[in-house]
Write a structure and sequence with these properties.
Length: 571
């Protein structure tokens, strides 16, 4: 028997027909190009979708009788299928051809079993929304509650009580295309994958064993996409472990997402993205990794919900000498909880990661070179001195090493000074310098003259009388002369105490001006800069990466040293 089907397609049947005592039909059947649009009401029992194009081809043996409403065993395929979401003209999923050589459908047992299925030209859209729901999950029909729509006297039928069992012995994809979007990420991610191919192992609605997934495709001209892991198609929240890997994606096309996140466009760069989704009994464990190469920020844009982040500095700190930024963003939580917001969790994780780097930049730099955390951003000086002591030279060397790993960073050096801390040392230095000049005028060149040396006493006395014209040396000398015992006719004179007193008075008479203090501060900043750009150092940094700022007055915390707080910015 051959014939044209009213809905479109050809039927060829060779078998037997029984009308009495009960209807029965059995034989070889072939259906060619049956339009699937007429099956939409049945499909909508499983999902809220609409069928567009698509034709069915079957070739095998069919049977229907009183015990078996319908059974078919043979081969089958669907060509040019297109499935759409309601009120959306864009296809949700479809393919050019789907074919299996083993198809076994038994309605009485509510079973559908197939051999391996080959799918060519698959196309579809997969969207993970901000609440972690998917566009496919939102379309699945709600299961009918047991007893719903029945009277108290009506018992549920076995066919309604038992779920339909589906087993697919694997899927092989070729020449597919997929649009993937994850709006739950802090930088909502969207891309199109073409030339998609790979395999999915056995899918079974009656087994707890998830299917293995291994897919690979291309993104744009030079990008790569891979999907590996396991998926339980009927219970994705019970057991799912998928890793989506994207390599060499061009970043500028994601500018709208960065504007939303931080109010900045992206001018250039490439991105690698690893999205590791693991869900076990509603518990999400996400290990997301983001690698950005040669990232360049563009202009600032107004965005009401953008996070207040200094991205230029953050990028300068995070980008290594090869222009790479590598960020790990672990995410955990109960995806079944109504309070769980995956978008907020990951957004906050990235925001915290950036803030921790920006708020403690030298702790981060120290971690690169194994140095003490916060100390890397401080250079300490003794009172009145601008030279670097050995521990500080080591600290500056560590800082130089770290800066070589972060080539976009620039240091700012505000030379410090303190009148109370540096003043006495500067006064002593001025007094010694004045002594040196007087000795030189007298023909005595001394590199480090002493204010208390006996050989210099006359010169120091001259300096004293010049500073204190109203004072009499005889009176001062008398203060350090005392009568000896009754048995002695001589008086005692403490020459050392006398010279120490003169030295103290000469030092105290020296004037320390604001210019002197600022000159010391500038000398300190210059000493640090010279150590950083030292031509003899193999890891020297460029001179334009160190900026000298105006000096600043600070206090010494312990009275033994003064610390310069190094500033840091992005070039």
């Amino acid at each position: 028997m051959k014939g044209q089907l009213a809905a479109g397609g050809m039927l060829d049947f060779d078998g037997s027909l029984q009308l009495s005592p009960a209807f029965a039909l059995e034989g070889d059947a072939r259906i060619d190009e049956l339009a699937l649009a007429q099956a939409e009401p049945y499909l909508q029992q499983l999902a809220d979708v609409q069928l567009g194009d698509g034709t069915l081809n079957l070739n095998g043996r069919m049977r229907t009788d009183a015990q078996q409403p319908f059974a078919f065993e043979g081969s089958g395929g669907i060509k040019a299928l297109s499935i759409r979401a309601p009120a959306n003209d864009e296809p949700l999923i479809g393919w050019q051809s789907l074919q299996t050589e083993e198809l076994n459908l038994r309605l009485a047992e509510r079973q559908l079993e197939t051999g391996p299925i080959s799918v060519d030209g698959l196309f579809g859209r997969v969207t993970i929304n901000e609440d972690q729901s998917t566009n496919f999950g939102q379309l699945m029909a709600e299961p009918q509650q047991e007893g719903a729509g029945k009277t108290d006297d009506e018992e549920p039928k076995d066919s309604e009580a038992d779920p339909f069992a589906i087993t697919i012995e694997g899927i092989e994809l070729t020449n597919g295309a997929l649009r993937f979007a994850d709006k739950s990420l802090p930088l909502p991610f969207s891309t199109s994958i073409h030339t998609l191919g790979g395999k999915i192992s056995t899918l079974s609605s009656t087994s707890a064993q998830p299917a293995q997934v291994a897919l690979e495709g291309e993104v744009a001209e030079y990008g790569l996409a891979r999907v590996d892991g396991t998926l339980h198609a009927w219970h994705p929240m019970r057991e799912t472990s998928l890793k989506l890997m994207f390599r060499n994606l061009q970043i500028p096309e994601y500018s709208p997402y960065t504007v939303r996140f931080a109010g900045r466009k992206i001018a250039g760069g490439t991105m690698d993205l690893d999205l590791d989704y693991t869900v076990t009994d509603n518990q999400l464990d996400g290990q997301n990794n983001l690698v950005l190469r040669d990232l360049k920020l563009g202009e600032k844009m107004d965005a009401s919900n953008a996070m207040d982040l200094p991205l230029d500095l953050a990028i300068g700190l995070l980008k290594d000498s090869d222009g790479v930024i590598d960020l790990d963003l672990p995410v955990t939580g109960d995806v079944g909880s109504p309070e769980f917001d995956i978008n907020q969790v990951i957004r906050q994780a990235l925001g915290n990661a950036i803030k921790s780097v920006v708020q403690s930049p030298f702790r981060f730099l120290a971690s690169l070179v194994g140095a003490e955390s916060e100390e890397l951003g401080q250079v300490e000086f003794p009172a009145g001195r601008s030279d670097l002591l050995p521990p500080q030279r080591e600290r500056v060397a560590k800082l130089r090493e770290a800066l070589n790993q972060r080539p976009e960073l620039v240091l700012e050096l505000p030379g410090p000074f303190s009148r109370t801390f540096d003043g006495p040392a500067l006064q002593r230095g001025k007094a010694i310098e004045a002594l040196r000049q007087r000795l030189a005028e007298a023909g005595r060149d001394v590199a480090e003259p002493s204010l208390t040396a006996g050989s210099n006493q006359e010169v120091v006395e001259t300096m004293f009388t010049a500073s204190y014209p109203d004072a009499y040396l005889e009176a001062v000398r008398a203060r350090f002369t005392q009568e000896q015992g009754e048995s002695s006719q001589d008086s005692g004179f403490d020459a050392l105490a006398y010279r120490n007193h003169l030295a103290e008075k000469v030092i105290a008479a020296q004037q320390v001006t604001d210019a002197d203090l600022r000159a010391l501060a500038n000398a300190r900043a210059t000493a640090v800069r010279d150590a950083l750009v030292d031509p003899s150092a193999e890891d020297r940094i460029e001179t334009d990466r160190v900026r000298l700022l105006d000096p600043g007055e600070i206090d010494s915390e312990d009275g033994e040293r003064l610390a310069m707080e190094v500033g840091i910015t992005a070039d």
